[in-house]
Design goal:
The structure is a homodimer of 425-residue chains.
Chain A: H1 10-19, E1 26-30, E2 43-44, E3 54-55, E4 59-62, E5 76-84, E6 98-102, E7 114-117, E8 122-126, E9 129-134, E10 144-145, E11 156-158, H2 166-174, E12 179-183, E13 187-193, E14 197-198, E15 209-210, H3 212-224, E16 227-234, H4 238-251, E17 254-258, H5 269-276, E18 279-282, E19 287-288, E20 294-298, E21 301-306, H6 310-329, E22 337-343, E23 354-359, E24 362-364, E25 367-370, E26 389-393, E27 405-410
Parallel strand pairs in A: 5-6, 13-16, 13-17, 14-15, 17-21, 19-23, 22-25
Antiparallel strand pairs in A: 1-12, 2-11, 3-10, 4-6, 4-7, 5-9, 8-9, 18-20, 20-21, 22-27, 23-26, 24-25, 26-27
Helix pairs in contact in A: 1-6, 3-6, 4-5
């Protein structure tokens, strides 16, 4: 069962896959559930923001003209003829040398064109009337946010495909979106292959290992925002495995298998793909780890045949499966964040394939340094702990020297200690 | 109701809050649900990994000594006397000049001390017997991963407090953790204050705005990993608001209010804190936006009184509430990721308070540039769209010039386009 395989470049593999991804379905969900999902519609301002001239502070709404000659030496007095809280509206009309008490965010009363902060006036009472004393000139529109100053009606606010961050949730609430259109979450089934696999709650046996890949992949799927379904293990028997795969395809949108794509005698996923009539997009990628990766398509469904090695299956997911899921979810920038960093160790052994090295970034000032995070073997599971990026090392005759600028792909946003400087440095 | 207020430094505010945070409760949950949660126990290796000498590739397990004199000119032949798949164990014993067919990951048979890849041998059949031909010397332990080579039993693998990444899920599965101890998710109630607020599904009215802060905060709470509960709005009436707050404290672990902490006539949260008997930790912070932030504690419960302005409440949450929630969840590094970046515009107006500027990072090579993302006003909601970091500018007599190195706090891990180079550059 040794198949003829031609290794293609990672970029080619991604292109072949992405050409086959259709658009996902969309659904309307309550705003309260929308955080982290992807917008399936452009968001356009259906009103001005603010919707009215609003006071920026607590204080008094006035006519700026009344303060024209106000100075410390000859302050002016304005009579307070009304009082409006936030959300209330003053219905009367202001006359010369009058003022209205106003709250932050309240609508400016008719006739007023500026405001002065509470802290900047002296309040007086004379003959049961309230006055304020102002000792400086106030400009027209001072401390007033004009109608439409932030957003005018009709403005495109957020484009379809954006991830709904808390800021976007706030924006949607401002414009009255109690529900919003988003991409439907695809369901991804995970099937492991290999008679050597035990369930995670089984005791170890000679020659066997626990099925860790499936659980890792399910966590990766959920982290991306899709739904994961554990479909168990395929045994090393072709007919049963074929039947299990057929059934899986009725349950989920996408099937990921781990293992069974190598050149070993019991690696019969290629046969299953053939019997299903699936179109194999490629069966080898010029990358390490994970060169024996097969991706096939049956109708609208993807079949990802990832390597059975933990690091290889982890990386295969991030590079190949993630952009498919993100695209189905509606994200138009579905790839890992791409940065550059400084290599902190030599990788001088040339490699014909692009190497993907698990790393934990070290930050010094504005520089980011990267080196291998532990055992750099595809079978390693500990090297994934603490890994927050992948170093991408394309084939290079001389390898890579310490100090080289290299590409990295970010995986994580884990927190670090922070210093708040009290003065500038 | 103008209270005497002393502005404290952000660092002081965080310290005062963090001193009051107790440890959260813990619970055991299925591994399949554990992604993104925080470990409430150290993870220690309960076995060696691998648990046995394992073959790294598909091929043949051999005795390295048999190949001592093998060369291209005088290759040696080994008889294939067995065949083991992954998960099977060979029970016989190998003799000189014999080999066993073996799969990737399988346990090395007794007597074998090296393996050779399938691609590197020639297979022969003679008189119904199988042979392989080897034309080079194989070293002892070649392509064999020794028992315990990756992890020895008893090793501390992951410390309590780590976020459970997909890699850690894989590790936990490897060691048979079908369940794992994690921090319990706290429930955070969100209460808005202000008669100017409409529900998000209500049509606009003169002088009113929709309650966007509560929805934004709920999205922030959920993003951090806690549970959010919408508790509605407090009206601008003290008795009813007091009763609503009392009730809220029976429903949730932490209450966040927005608005009502300024110096306006209707801002009576200070009175509510007093009637509740809550201890006010501080009521002003030397930061913009969000200086009028009050944090109080009643028994084990925190009361966060954030500013009613969208950007101020957003930032107040990220700086002050987030570390509390993360700590309760069990995270020992609960703060936003801290980096340095290059300022791409002048901020030369001196400010007595630390400014927090919403920004969208621009990456060029290994450099990150930051400048203000849109309208830099506390009332701005659009400036939060696309914001992926906050620039921290402590008070500085000369302000900050373009090109200065400044501190930034990362908010986001949104994806960007990536290039896969096919050769080194």
């Amino acid at each position: 069962m040794l198949t003829d395989r031609r290794a293609i470049l990672i970029g080619e593999a991604i292109e072949k896959i992405m050409k086959e991804v259709g658009t996902g379905r969309v659904e309307k969900i309550p705003l309260i559930k929308a955080g982290g999902r992807y917008l399936a519609e452009d968001i356009i301002a259906n009103q001005d923001v603010p919707a009215f001239d609003r006071s920026l502070y607590d204080g008094y709404a006035i006519m700026a003209e009344d303060t024209r000659f106000a100075t410390k030496e000859s302050p002016i007095e304005l009579e307070v003829v009304g009082h409006i809280g936030a959300g209330s509206v003053f219905l009367g009309e202001i006359k010369q040398y009058q003022a209205i008490r106003i709250m932050t965010g309240a609508e400016m009363p008719k006739g007023c064109n500026a405001m002065i902060m509470l802290e900047q006036v002296t309040e007086l009472e004379k003959e049961d009337k309230q006055f304020i004393v102002i000792d400086k000139q106030i400009q027209i529109n001072e401390k007033v946010l004009k109608k439409g100053a932030e957003i005018t009606k009709g403005t495109l606010l957020v484009e379809k495909g954006a991830q709904i961050t808390p800021g976007i949730v706030g924006l949607l609430a401002t414009f009255g979106y109690s529900e919003v259109m988003v991409g439907v979450k695809p369901t991804v089934g995970v099937l492991a292959t290999g008679s050597e696999l035990l369930e995670i709650d089984e005791p170890l046996e000679p020659g066997k290992i626990r099925n860790s890949n499936s659980y890792m992949l399910m966590a990766q799927i959920e982290k991306v925002g899709a739904n994961a379904l554990y479909l168990g293990k395929l045994e090393d028997r072709l007919d049963e495995s074929y039947a299990a795969m057929k059934k899986a395809l009725t349950q989920v949108d996408i099937v990921i298998t781990t293992g069974g794509v190598s050149v070993g005698d019991f690696d019969f996923l290629p046969d299953i793909y053939e019997r299903l009539g699936a179109k194999v997009l490629f069966n080898k990628i010029a990358m390490r780890p994970g060169s024996v990766t097969t991706v096939a398509k049956l109708g609208k469904q993807f079949l990802f045949g990832l390597s059975g090695n933990p690091s290889a299956s982890f990386i295969g997911f991030e590079l190949l499966v993630r952009p498919v899921l993100k695209t189905i979810l509606g994200n138009e920038q579905p790839y890992l964040v791409f940065r550059q960093a400084i290599l902190a160790e030599d990788f001088i052994v040339p490699n014909a394939f692009t190497q993907l090295i698990r790393t934990k970034q070290k930050v010094e000032g504005t520089n980011v340094y990267v080196s291998s995070n532990g055992l750099n073997m595809s079978s390693s599971i500990t090297s994934l702990v603490g890994t927050d990026a992948l170093i991408v090392l394309p084939p290079c005759d001389d390898g890579y020297k310490k100090g080289s600028i290299v590409d990295i792909l970010l995986l994580s946003d884990e927190g670090q200690k922070i210093n708040y400087f009290t003065t500038c440095n």
